[in-house]
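2024-03-11 09:14:02 DEBUG pipeline.ingest accepted 1 chain
2024-03-11 09:14:02 DEBUG pipeline.ingest length=143
2024-03-11 09:14:03 DEBUG pipeline.predict start
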Amino acid sequence: MKIESELQAELLKVIDAPGWMTFKHSDGLTSGVPDISRTAYGFTSWWELKRLAPEHVYPMKLSGTELQRINMRQLSLSSVQAAWYVVWTQEHTLIVHPSEVSIRGNVILMRDPEKKRVFGPEDHEAVKLFMIDLHTQVLPRRQ
């Protein structure tokens, strides 16, 4: 099982693309700031990247601080699509909205009946496509 930093590094390589600005904020010195932000098409999204150990999958509980979860919730309120978690388990890659996570870190309800945010294990390409779709649908492209 890969550790979170390995999955993050792999994802950052896959999502690298011309016209996109990606900043990694997790440096061990800052607290409560999401791991990465991505800007394209006049829109910035914030991403917290989590690797779940098997004992935290059922029920799903995300690690991290309360400040981190509060900031993710605030960022999601600034724009409904502005903040997301990428969660890796042994079986799936999930994209979870902060409104689906309690302040204690429990994933309380994933509102994804069509399973559009549940992918295979370590499916970085699916995350990239979700990010592209998110950015191209939220705001119209500038001419």
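2024-03-11 09:14:41 DEBUG pipeline.report The mean pLDDT is 87.
2024-03-11 09:14:41 DEBUG pipeline.predict end
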